[in-house]
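BUG: 3D viewer hangs when loading the predicted structure for this chain

Environment: internal workstation, default settings.
Expected: structure renders.
Actual: progress bar stalls at 90%.

Input used:
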Amino acid sequence: MSKWRKRLLHFAIAMAFIASGVLGLRALTASKPQLIKSKPTAPIPMVQAIQVKTGPQEVHVFGEGTVRPLREINLAPQVGGKVVYISPDLVNGGRFNKGDILLRIDPVDYQLAVILGKAKIKNAESRLKLAEAEADAAQEEWRLLHDGGPKETRKPPPLVAKEPQLAAAKAMLEADRAELSKALLNLERTQLKAPFDGRVGEESVDIGQYVVPGQALAALYSTEAAEIVVPLEQEDLYWFDVPGFTSNEGPGSAAVVRARIAGRERTWRGRVVRTEGKLDERTRMINVVVRVEKPNVKKPPLAVGLFVAVDIEGRTLPNATVIPRSALHQEDVVWVVDEDGQLHFRNVDIARIQGEEVIVTDGLKENEMVVINSLKAVTDGMTVHTKVLDESDKFENIWAGEQMYDRRKSTGTQVEGEKERPLVNPDAAPTEASKSKKLIIQVGAFRERKTAENLMRRLQEEGYDAYLEMRTLKNLGLIYRVRLRIYSSMNTAKSVKARLEKQGFQDPLILRAERN
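Structure tokens produced before the viewer hung:
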């Protein structure tokens, strides 16, 4: 084959390959599916919501104060002398009843004064009888001399009848009787008796000590009632009755006083009785006085000086709704999810915000779904997925604010406002020192008492020895802690902690018990 024919053959073969490639490409292009442009679906956010209930809602006003006695006096003598007797109850903290003799001053001088006074009275009585006899004799003599004279001369003149001498004798007798009464009174005052049922707050006297009138010997306070002064904002007084201030004379609103004493939380019933005379010029708050009758009936008692929390039971709103504070946005807006899963902004009328609760009087209907968490981006009408929470999940467990230790560290410190106390890292190996410490387990901390009590009851139903502890922290205010009783072994505490976590109780903490 010639050279020219070979080149022609190669060219023909190359063109055939090119033509088949072009035809194959066209066939592949024609057979591929048509791409359809579509807009990506936006993700639907998840929200937490509660189903609201409407009905009568009682307003509660919360405050704090220190217990003080209804009456407090200084025991002081009205006469002077040497102390010869002191009651065994006249000691700091001693109890006494009304009429008990607390202290006796040497009565000898005052007994002698009584004897002298009685002698003076007898002398004055004899003088009065002598003056009366002389007056009668003078008047009889005058009548004998002027029996036949004019009528106006039959009555003797006052000097002749010895009327001035008779009046002086009577006055002297009255003066001596008054002096005897004073001597008897001074003798009685040598015994210092209790003016009421009460306790001794302080005493500074002993047998053999010479005391003078007006000298303070002891501080006494009554136990018939105790009072708590609760500073409140002026607007708070609108919600409850204060006799003579927000209502006419009559019983004030009822109150519940709560305090932790002797390792237990106790409650006492009280009542609002008045406000103090003027507002606090520095804080512009009004001091409301709550009185508790017979505070010492329960044991342990409502001790004077104890710092307590006060829950004043206010008015009842006939048709209101209670929602968590986290559901409130922009002061008076809540997010409501309708039946189609769309979120809507809703303006509501707020009656009062108390702690973590908001009382709404208008704007919400029965069984509506209200969102209680926040979203970074939200619009009116947007579609959301809803997770409905039950009643026990309404209010936030304030773990973040009351976090006791950092799990990344081996030790921690208390929240600001509490006593410094080393805390326990349950992941660290127990040392000999830690084995000897008494331990407790904290399961939750809440601003709402009702939520804390629900958790405590749930733990008790599970067989745990749970209790409630109330504490005021500088940054968080009044909180309620749910804790389990003391454990003596770290291994035991860790075992209980693991069992709690398995049962669904989140992040229980192992802490060292406070030293008494």
